[in-house]
Amino acid sequence: MTWLERFSNLFRGEALGRALDEELDFHLEARIGENIRAGMSPQEAERDARRRFGNRTLAKERSREMDIVAGLETVGQDVRYALRSLRRSPGFTATAVLALALGVGANTAVFTVVNGVLLRPLPFPEAQRLTLISYRPTRGPFHYQPSMADAHYVAFRRQNQAYERTATFAGETMTLTGAGDPVRLQAAAVTPDFFPTLRVNASLGRTFLADEDQKGSDQVALLSDTLWRSRFGADANVLGKTIVVDGARRKVVGVMPPGFAFGLGSPRDAGLWTPLNAAPDGHNSFSRPVVGRLKPGVTPQQAKAELDAWVRGLPAERGRDGMLAETLPLKDLLVGDIRSSLLIFAGAVAFVLLIACANVANLLLMRAASRQQEIGVRGALGASRWRLIRQLLTESLLVSLAGGTAGLALAALGVRLLLRMAPAGKIPRLPEIHIDGWVLAFTFGVVALTGIAFGLAPAFQATRRSLRAGLTAGGRTNTARGEGLRGALVVLEIAMALVLLTGAGLMLKSFVRMRSVNPGFRAENVLTMTVDLPDSVYRTPNELKAFHALTLDKLASLPGVVAVGAVNWMPFAGALVTGDFQIEGRPRSSHGWADKPGVSPGYFRAVGIPLLKGRYFTERDSASAPGVVIVSQSVGQRLWPGEDPIGKRISMEDHPKPEDWLTIVGVVDDIRQSDLKLKPSATVYQPYTQVPRAGFLSHMSFLVRTAANPQSLAPAFRAVLKEVDRDQPVESVAAMEDVVGAAVAEPRFQGRLLAVFAALALALSVIGIYGVQSYSVAERTHEIGIRMALGAPQNAVLRMVLRRTLGLAAAGVALGTAGALAVTGVIGKFLFQVTPTDPATFAAVAAVLAASAVLAALLPARRAAKVDPMITLRCQ
């Protein structure tokens, strides 16, 4: 036999078995020969040799374990035996695989989103060196995103030593015409250093040159790959062509690579980029995000120290005590507030997985208990305890692998459902959310850990009994220890389910309360249309006002319209103009902050804001008439307590001239302008016809109150706009109820998703309780039969089973309540008018769990109560 044949024989189990048999026969025969030479008869010599030699099968097993290849063969034997064993128990296998598939699938789906949004690095070279450069006020009326004022950005860029490049940018919406129908698209204005800072080059053409942010040289644009393909047919000759953006002609100089859509500082994709000139201007207070690329060898801490020193040298601004420096990873601008929600969801699905594992561990405990005779026989034949544990672990790992594979299929569906449930635009980096190698590694890592974790306890429990206990009476021995472990797992399941149910209950209660908040106006039967007019076409306030007046007239003539109005910053639509004002006859100072919308005379009737005193605006309140305003109730009560504010005068200017004073002609009810969680806004309304600056008139929302379904008027809305100016696309047409509903979309999403996880946890817990009680009843059938033979009534047996269930439920509720009190504080910032320790929610959840536990145990209890003692005792 050649060496190659010998080597190949190592991989053939039969050849290796024959070799071991030959080796053992050789040693046995040698021992027999020694005994015969010592004077024993052949029969005595063989008997003594076999006694001294011991168990032949065990010796072969030990020999095999010393061989690596043979060790792999024994693993294969374990796998084949485990597959046969699982195939003989299809009910157990299906239940365990389904439980794990739900747990692993939910975890994989959430991890896929977490990986894409939070963990995956930004697709830029050395993205870890990109940081946001920002400051924020120590106190002030505004919520600041990471940003800098233009003048401060230019000053910092000149003297900074930590960054090799810096750039600022701003998200915008722009109108593209001349490439098909006019379209309003997301875009970004960026300084020329923006793309070199990110180290991204155009796939076609070039990016902006250093001087293309200067006036006269800034009439250029870059296209996204998506816009290039959808609007220009992927024409390579697009370079040099002229497009019209917001009414201004721009030359296309480049097309960005596929997948690049950064520039808004939001989840929305940018389709077009234009140059931004960030020159200092004392007349604006624009603040924009600033990104910088750290120099090699410079740490974020060193950059933060340099920024700290620079910020401390800034002069204090009115209304602020000072500024605090901030340097953040660039990813934080994209992730925003979704980070907290995703981490909460990740924690919730981890609980679901733990409940699934506890469920499967209980199933394995019950299955192992029913196999005591089989385990005893295998032990009697020479199998060591470790060999038996390895076999049982192999079975649990196979179950886990099957559950993980099925969970991956569920995760693919779960990711789509999760993204569909999420509010539009709330989850960033959508193209990067997909199942990849990291997700697969996470899934199968979870599979391996859970397979070992939920398989170890049953394996040790099943193999701790003596051979005699396993072989006598079919393996039936004292099961108190196993029953206690199964009960402990049920308690753990109930406790974790209670934590999830409590969190979901708090979120849903918070959502219901938020949804019931009165915004201060009537949103039903109101349709809205928002338009942004380019300053390159509508240059003056009079041109803008003429557009708005013509549009209002045409909308009022539509059939079914009850009232029509316009407002430059519609409630719950995002941005608001907010600031302070001066009061006639009082010292110049800040009298508080107020929203300052410009509205048409019919706005209050169209949106349903009630008048409390005075009058609404009329057509007589034109640009040539004396200036007037309407204030909300809170403004009047705060500034003139106990007095009538009608006739009082205020000014929006810091140093008002005589013509800048505005007379209060009406008081209306307070409304919530931006958030249902916040108190009603202090608001000062001004007729849009008297707003002097074009910048406050280019963005306008038109609202009509209809007698029927407002959505039926949407085509007519678009037709009106096309009739007034065919080159202006509609930014959005939406029912006001949908606009208000979007304000609660995120808490609705959070509540729904937590409710799904909680329902899953509750279902798994109920299945676990049912399984444990069913097995307990079957295990104690003999005892129940004796009790009934001695006169115990059916109700007593029923109470005995339910009493144990209630005991487990009570222990689980107590443990879960303690856990919920410790955990629910995490979601406190998401709650509205509900405390994290809300007693009603805790009580309701405890009642639901207790009732579910009783219902789950009712069927096994009824089965126990119907045991026939004669049949039971005869079978035993």
Class of secondary structure makeup: alpha+beta
Q: Give the number of DSSP strands.
A: 25
End-to-end span in angstroms?
60 Å
Number of helices in the DSSP assignment: 27
Which stretches of 5+ consecutive residues score pLDDT under 50? Answer: 1-13, 473-478
- Compute the average pLDDT: 81
Supply Rg: 38 Å
- Which percent bin holds the helix content? 40-55%
Query: Largest sheet, described in full?
Result: 7 strands, mixed
Shape: elongated
Which range does the strand content fall in?
5-15%
Count of folded domains:
4
Polypeptide structure, described:
By secondary structure, the protein is of the alpha+beta class. It has 4 domains: 3-70, no CATH class; 128-329, no CATH class; 338-515 and 745-875, no CATH class; 534-727, no CATH class. The protein contains 27 helices and 25 strands. The strands form 5 sheets. Strands 16, 18, 19, 20, 21, 22 and 23 form a 7-stranded mixed beta sheet that branches. A 6-stranded mixed beta barrel has the order 3-4-9-6-8-7. It has a 4-stranded antiparallel beta sheet with strand order 14-24-13-25. A hairpin with a 5-residue loop joins strand 3 (163-177) and strand 4. Helix 2 (13-37) crosses helix 3 (42-53), helix 6 runs antiparallel to helix 12 (338-369) and helix 12 runs antiparallel to helix 17 (480-515). It is elongated.
